[in-house]
Design brief:
extended; 4 domains; 14 helices; mainly alpha
Length: 295
């Protein structure tokens, strides 16, 4: 009775049986013509093997040296051969590089096709289109494209703001309580009008009490604290690193309406070093901005 029950119960072993290997090779050969990329094939095979993940299916097919025609995988299955680790890693790298080239090529084509109908001298769309076209045709390598794009971005959105830290006024010390209160109030109001985050930090830390002093007060035991932080020995992390499959969906081109919606949700966000506000970006060509982000 117990032997019959054990035959009915599903096994918990992670090892692949010969029947599972045969079914996997047969289904992979049948479904391969209808799948454009291998990720889609692994996803469809995962529906037939509920107890196996897509990553496990991918590794098993690599171990069996499966090819779209199925002959090589079936031959190895009959002979019981095992593929070397180096062959598995090299095939995985080639597979990922092939899919990466497909996604990057689709992104390049989308940028060129979109900028072909956009002419905006303010955003330098003509130069950006020519840059991506040269990259797609192989006239420029990735490093050269990065250098030219950084220069183009610096010309299109130049840094016109030179940030500076707050400087405490040096002079005669304030003596009366009224002068102290006025100096503290003026300091908080000035920070509230210019940098609200710094104003909140000043109030919460209590530095507003030293606004009348000619020099900034440092917290007590500041040196001892940082010495303890940097002098302590490093702690190794024994947790294993889990490398997940690449998420190629991040290379889907950004549309112009997505840029507009994101800018509207940002509201009155403080500008960066280029002093360009969200209102300024909304007045620019949204298609050109989207292709800048895609590049």
């Amino acid at each position: 009775m117990n032997a019959e029950r054990l035959q009915v119960l599903p096994g918990r072993s992670t090892l692949w049986s010969k029947q599972e290997d045969e079914a996997l090779l047969r289904l992979a050969t049948e479904l391969a013509p209808s799948c454009r990329i291998r990720r889609a094939l692994y996803a469809r095979l995962g529906g037939h093997f509920s107890n196996r993940s897509e990553e496990a299916i991918r590794k098993r097919l690599q171990l069996l040296r499966w090819s779209p025609d199925g002959a090589l995988g079936a031959r190895l299955l009959r002979e019981g051969e095992q593929s070397p680790t180096q062959a598995i890693l090299s095939e995985s790298i080639v597979d990922d590089e092939r899919e990466s080239a497909l996604w990057v090529g689709a992104m390049q084509s989308a940028i060129v096709d979109s900028l072909a109908s956009v002419e905006d001298e303010e955003l330098n769309t003509a130069r950006l289109c020519q840059l991506v076209r040269d990259w797609r045709e192989g006239l420029l390598d990735l490093r050269s494209v990065q250098l030219v794009f950084e220069q183009l971005t610096a010309e299109t959105f130049p840094h016109v703001w030179r940030p500076s830290t707050f400087k405490y006024r040096a002079g005669a010390a304030v003596k009366t309580k009224r002068q102290i209160r006025r100096a503290q109030f003026a300091q908080v109001q000035k920070l509230y009008a210019t940098r609200r985050k710094d104003c909140a930090d000043t109030v919460l830390s209590g530095d507003w009490r030293a606004a009348h002093e000619s020099s900034l007060r440092r917290p007590t035991s500041l040196g001892e604290f940082w010495s303890q932080v940097f002098d302590q020995p490093s702690m190794p992390d024994p947790r294993p690193v889990e490398a997940g499959p690449p998420k190629w969906s991040v290379l889907v081109p950004i549309a112009a309406h997505e840029v507009t919606e994101a800018l509207k949700q940002m509201g009155q966000t403080a500008p960066g070093l280029d002093r360009v506000t969200t209102a300024d970006l909304l007045r620019k060509n949204q298609e050109g901005l989207a292709q800048f982000l895609n590049t």
